[in-house]
Write a structure and sequence with these properties.
This protein is of the alpha/beta class. The chain is built from 23 helices and nine strands. Among the domains are: about 30-180, DNAb Helicase, Chain A; about 210-430, P-loop containing nucleotide triphosphate hydrolases (Rossmann fold), CATH 3.40.50.300. About 50% of the residues lie in helices and about 10% in strands. A nine-stranded mixed β-sheet has the order 3-2-4-5-1-6-7-8-9, sandwiched between helices. The chain is elongated, with a radius of gyration of 31 Å.
Length: about 550
C-alpha cells in the first residue's frame, strides 16, 4: 500500500470496503419532526403516504408510530396523541416506543409544522441512500460469489443485474415525491384538455405528432405522440418487412425530419443498418453493399445521402446482448444529452432480462422488457417503436392476415401497446401466376386510375412485358398491407402501402393528406369512393377484389 496520505490519493478497493462497515444513513431528528408535524396537522398524512414508504423511517419506534397513524387514517379514527397512545396500548406496542411520554414528546418535538416539507425531504434522501447501499451490497456479494458452484454464469448477467438494482432505486425515488403523478382535479385537467384541443383546431388537418413519412399511417394515428409517450408494436413473420419498416421510419424521422432518436439494434450491426438507411434512402439496390457493383449515378446519390445521414441526430446501439438495464441507462443518458424523442427496439425477443425471474422464464422476460419500455415511455415521454416476431403458428395458415392472438410470447405485448401494426404481403404467399384472371383484372382496374394520376407512388412498369403481366404484376408484387389491429386514437383499418424489396423500403401510395380527389385516397378499406358512376364502379371493383383475395 502507498505511503501517500489517504486524503491526497484515491481510496483503494480494500479501504472502500472497510468503510462500508458503519451505520446506515438516517436522521432521527427529521423522522421525529415529520411525526410531530403529522400529529399537529393530520390532514398531511395522506400526502406523506404518497411520498414516503414506511421503510423511510429507519428507527423502529418512529416506524411503528407512523404505521399506527396510517392505520387510524384508514379506519377514519382521529389522529391525535391520546388516540395514538390508546391504539398503541391496545396493540401492545406502547412499551416498544417508550410509553405514553414518548408520544407526548413527539407531539411537542416541533413547535409549529412550518418546516414539514424540509423534514420530508431529508427522510426521502436518507431512505434513497439506504436503498442504494442495500442494492450495491447485494451486487458486491453477488460479484464475490461469481464463479462458485452456486453461481457459475455469464458475468454480463451479473453486471446487468447490478445495474438493474441501481436503476430500481432511481425508479422507486422517481415514483414518489415531486416526481409522482397523483390525482389531478378536474379544473386543472379540463384546462389542459382545452389548451390541447385549441392547438388541434388551430392546426386543423395537420399532423400534430411525429410524422412517419407513410401518409396512410399518419392519417390513421394522426402522427406518433411523443408529448405523452406511446408504444407502437410493429409485428410480422420473417420476410414480411419488420426491419425494413424500422429502417424506413428511422430514416424518415431522423434523416428527413431531424427528430433525435435512439435505435437498439439487437438483430443487425450498425454497419448493416446503415447499409439500409443510406442505400435504401438513396434508392440504391441494397444488395450492392455486398457486391460493390455501384454505378457512377449510385455513387453520386450515395455521397449526398451519406452527408445527410451524418448530420442526422441519430444514435445506434448494436450490442450483441442488449438488456433491459441497457435500455434504461442508455435512454436516460440519450434523453439528457441529445433530447431524443423516440426509440426503436429491433426486436423484442432479442432483449435480455436482468432479473432472476426473467432469466429463468421466457414469458417473464417478455413482461420485464414490456414493463421497462412502459417506464421509458411514461417517464421520458418517448415514442417507442417495437419490432415483434409473430407466433410460428401463423405459418400453418400461410397467407392468412395476422391478428392480435398471433403476437408471440406474452399477452403483456398487447396490454402495454398503444398501437399494433401488423405487416402482411400477399405477393409473398400468392404469386401473380397463381391468381385467377378475374382477380388480375380487378387489381388492374382498381390501380389504373390512381396510377395515372400519381405515377410516383407506383412502379415504373418496365420490369415485365405485357405477356408476363406488365405493370399490374409489378405493382401487385410491391403491394404490402399494414393491418392496424389496435389504435388508441381511432380506426383500425387495413392499409395498402408500397414495398420495394430491392431496396428494402416502405413508402406511401398516397401523394398527400386531405385530398378531395378519390384517386389520392388510401387504397384499402379506409375510404370508399362515392357518387359519380366511375367512382361507384371503381368502388365495386375494389370491394369484389377484397372479397376474392385469399383469406382477406
Amino acid at each position: 500500500m502507498s505511503d501517500q496520505p489517504a486524503k491526497d490519493r484515491p481510496l483503494t478497493t480494500e479501504e472502500r470496503l472497510a468503510r462500508i462497515n458503519k451505520a446506515l444513513p438516517f436522521s432521527d431528528e427529521a423522522e421525529k419532526g415529520v411525526l410531530s408535524c403529522l400529529m399537529q396537522d393530520p390532514e398531511r398524512i395522506a400526502e406523506v403516504r404518497a411520498k414516503l414508504p414506511t421503510e423511510a423511517f429507519y428507527h423502529e419506534c418512529n416506524r411503528l408510530v407512523f404505521e399506527v397513524m396510517l392505520d387510524m387514517l384508514d379506519k377514519n379514527l382521529p389522529v391525535e396523541p391520546i388516540a395514538i397512545t390508546h391504539r398503541l396500548r391496545d396493540q401492545k406496542k406502547l412499551d416498544l416506543i417508550g410509553g405514553p411520554a414518548a408520544v407526548s414528546d413527539l407531539y411537542t418535538f416541533v413547535p409549529i409544522p412550518t418546516h414539514y416539507p424540509h423534514y420530508v425531504g431529508i427522510l426521502r434522501e436518507k431512505w434513497a441512500l439506504r436503498q442504494t447501499i442495500h442494492a450495491c451490497a447485494e451486487s458486491i456479494d453477488e460479484c464475490f460469489a461469481h464463479g462458485s458452484e452456486q453461481s457459475d454464469e455469464d458475468v454480463t448477467a451479473v453486471v446487468g443485474r447490478a445495474e438493474g438494482r441501481v436503476f430500481g432505486c432511481v425508479q422507486a425515488l422517481q415514483a414518489s415525491g415531486e416526481y409522482s403523478t397523483g390525482p389531478v382535479l378536474a379544473a386543472r385537467g379540463v384546462s389542459e384538455w382545452v389548451d390541447r384541443t385549441e392547438q388541434t383546431i388551430a392546426n386543423r388537418g395537420k399532423i400534430m405528432g411525429l410524422e412517419t413519412g407513410i401518409l396512410e399511417l399518419d392519417q390513421t394515428v394522426h402522427g406518433l405522440d411523443d408529448a405523452q409517450g406511446e408504444i407502437v408494436v410493429i409485428a410480422g413473420r420473417p420476410g414480411q418487412g419488420k426491419t425494413a419498416m424500422a429502417t424506413t421510419l428511422i430514416h424518415n424521422l431522423a434523416v428527413e425530419r431531424n427528430v433525435p432518436g435512439l435505435v437498439f439494434s439487437a438483430e443487425m450491426s450498425s454497419v448493416q443498418l446503415y447499409d439500409r438507411i443510406i442505400l435504401g434512402g438513396a434508392s440504391i439496390d441494397t444488395s450492392k453493399a455486398i457486391t460493390g457493383m455501384f454505378s457512377r449515378a449510385d455513387q453520386d446519390a450515395m455521397t449526398v445521402k451519406v452527408r445527410q445521414v451524418q448530420r442526422a441526430p441519430l444514435l445506434i446501439s448494436d450490442g450483441s446482448a442488449i438488456s433491459t438495464a441497457d435500455i434504461r441507462s442508455q435512454v436516460q443518458v440519450a434523453k439528457r444529452q441529445h433530447g431524443i424523442r423516440w426509440i426503436v427496439v429491433d426486436h423484442l425477443h432479442l432483449i435480455k432480462a436482468v432479473s432472476k425471474r426473467g432469466m429463468k422464464d421466457e414469458r417473464e422476460a417478455l413482461v420485464e422488457v414490456m414493463e421497462t419500455l412502459q417506464f421509458v415511455k411514461k417517464f421520458y415521454k418517448l415514442t417507442v417503436l417495437l419490432m415483434v416476431q409473430l407466433n410460428r403458428e401463423t405459418d400453418r395458415n400461410a397467407g392468412k392476415p395476422p391478428v392480435l392472438a398471433d403476437l408471440s410470447g406474452s399477452a403483456a405485448i398487447e396490454w402495454y401497446a398503444d398501437h399494433v401494426w401488423m405487416l402482411h404481403r400477399d405477393p409473398y404467399f400468392f404469386g401473380w401466376h397463381t391468381l385467377s384472371e378475374e382477380k388480375k383484372k380487378g387489381w388492374a382496374d382498381a390501380v389504373e386510375p390512381r396510377r395515372e394520376r400519381n405515377p410516383q407512388c407506383w412502379s415504373s412498369g418496365g420490369k415485365y412485358g405485357e405477356e408476363d403481366g406488365g405493370w399490374p404484376r409489378e405493382d401487385y408484387e410491391q403491394d404490402a398491407k399494414i393491418y392496424v389491429r389496435k389504435n388508441r386514437r381511432g380506426p383500425t383499418p387495413e392499409l395498402h402501402v408500397r414495398f420495394e424489396d430491392w431496396r428494402t423500403w416502405f413508402s406511401s401510395r398516397m401523394p398527400k393528406l386531405n385530398s378531395t380527389d378519390w384517386r389520392d385516397w388510401q387504397f384499402g378499406s379506409y375510404a370508399v369512393p362515392k357518387k359519380e358512376p366511375k367512382m361507384k364502379k371503381v368502388g365495386q371493383v375494389r370491394s369484389s377484389l377484397h372479397d376474392d383475395f385469399p383469406d382477406d
